[in-house]
Amino acid sequence: MDAKKRKKLEAKGWRVGSARDFLNLSDEEMALIELKISLGDTLQSKRKQKKMTQLELAKFLKSSQSRIAKMEAGDPSVSLDLLVKSLFSLGLSRRELSKVIS
User: Which CATH number fits domain 18-101: 1.25.40.10, 3.40.640.10, 3.30.70.260, 1.10.260.40?
Assistant: First the structure.
């Protein structure tokens, strides 16, 4: 957000902050959210690199298209092990995974 817009909002009594501030998230909770988002982005990138649709990936993983969409969006209902297993199924190496995590 640009400084001018921020000042305007604050002048009208609004507080400007982050989702972390609003939800009072700990460092660990933020790290988990960022990890899931990163893994989801990598899944989407790898899927597109292989020229697959969400539906094709779902069939490949014996899942549903909506589940793939949730995985790519970092939905909290998706487990880390499902994300990692799916990435490995698409050919992501451990070394590539370590780069995503770090």
Answer: 1.10.260.40
